[in-house]
Write a structure and sequence with these properties.
Layout (H helix, E strand, L loop, with lengths): L1 H13 L7 E5 L11 E7 L17 E7 L2 E7 L10 H14 L3 E10 L9 E9 L27 H13 L4 E8 L8 H9 L4 E3 L3 H9 L3 E11 L10 H25 L1
Parallel strand pairs: 1-4, 1-5, 5-9, 6-7, 7-8
Antiparallel strand pairs: 2-3, 3-4, 5-8, 6-9
Helix pairs in contact: 1-2, 2-5, 3-6
Function: The purine nucleoside phosphorylases catalyze the phosphorolytic breakdown of the N-glycosidic bond in the beta-(deoxy)ribonucleoside molecules, with the formation of the corresponding free purine bases and pentose-1-phosphate.
Family: Belongs to the PNP/MTAP phosphorylase family.
Organism: Gaetbulibacter jejuensis
Length: about 270
């Protein structure tokens, strides 16, 4: 994997991806942040050596380098998921590449369902902790110790200083920002009523199909990491309604301006 990473990094450096400070992963329906970025370079995933290719139609599949609030950022417009048939090493490969390019902070967004019924769709949740229900680990492969500590500590996977800054920005801007535990499942099917009940029992406040693998690898690489969920549906097992992906994307778009405010304010403070 080290040789693959180096080949990818050399290609991107030749394309002008030089000295990014912050990496950003944009989740489902969350692309408007790009309108705030001065784009310097961009390249499609399918042109990048050793990179996976996004197969989900609403994930665009571009790596973007630019400036936001005076900082150099590298943005994944579209991420990878286990449910697309990739391995956890594929899903997290871009995080390893961004770290090798120079980022020290990783910001992640996602769309998720609200398990905590005090949370409403269209609101945001700052992830304080997570539960990995994807069945494996992105660190479970031969040679992982060559890239970092095999037994990565996960006692505090989300940076407390960044999270406190997010909460301060939310308060200043009158943005509802819940804080809670995110459970990551494989998908792509949504959960049954019984599964939502289980998730609530084990302590989840929201559920989605991403983020945790990237956060594990970010911690493996000693990056500062924070993540925000846009709550796109309410998962009440006693009053469960069918949810279409178009509805999820539409709700994400409505909530996205608040997320952008938080991301811009945070990056300005770094």
């Amino acid at each position: 994997m080290i040789n693959y990473i180096n080949e990818t990094v050399d290609y991107l450096k030749d394309k002008g991806f030089i000295n990014p400070e912050i990496g950003i992963i944009l989740g489902t329906g969350l692309g408007m942040l790009l309108d705030e970025i001065t784009i310097l370079k961009e390249v499609s995933y399918n042109h990048i050596p050793n990179f996976p290719t996004a197969t989900v139609e609403f994930h665009k599949g571009k790596l973007i380098f630019g400036e936001l609030e005076g900082k150099k950022v590298i943005v994944m417009q579209g991420r990878f998921h286990l449910y697309e048939g990739y391995t956890l090493q594929d899903v997290t490969y871009p995080v390893r590449v961004m770290e090798k390019l120079g980022i020290t902070t990783l910001l992640v967004s996602n769309a998720s369902g609200a398990i905590n019924l005090n949370f409403k769709k269209g609101e945001l949740m700052l992830i304080d902790d997570h539960i990995n229900l994807q069945g494996s680990s992105p660190l479970a492969f031969k040679g992982v110790s060559l890239l970092g500590e095999r037994f990565a500590d996960m006692s505090a996977p989300y940076d407390a200083t960044i999270n406190n800054t997010f909460k301060s920005i939310a308060k200043t801007n009158n943005i509802t920002l819940h804080e809670g535990v995110y459970a990551s499942v494989v998908g792509p099917q949504l959960e049954t009523r019984a599964e939502y009940r289980m998730l609530k029992i084990i302590g989840a406040d929201a559920v989605g199909m991403s983020t945790v693998p990237e956060v594990i690898v970010a911690n493996h690489l000693n990056l500062k990491v924070a993540a925000i969920s846009v709550l796109t549906d309410e998962c009440d097992p006693d009053n469960l309604e069918a949810v279409a992906i178009d509805d999820i994307i539409a709700t994400a778009a409505i909530a996205e301006p608040n997320m952008i405010t938080l991301f811009k304010g945070l990056i300005q403070s770094l």
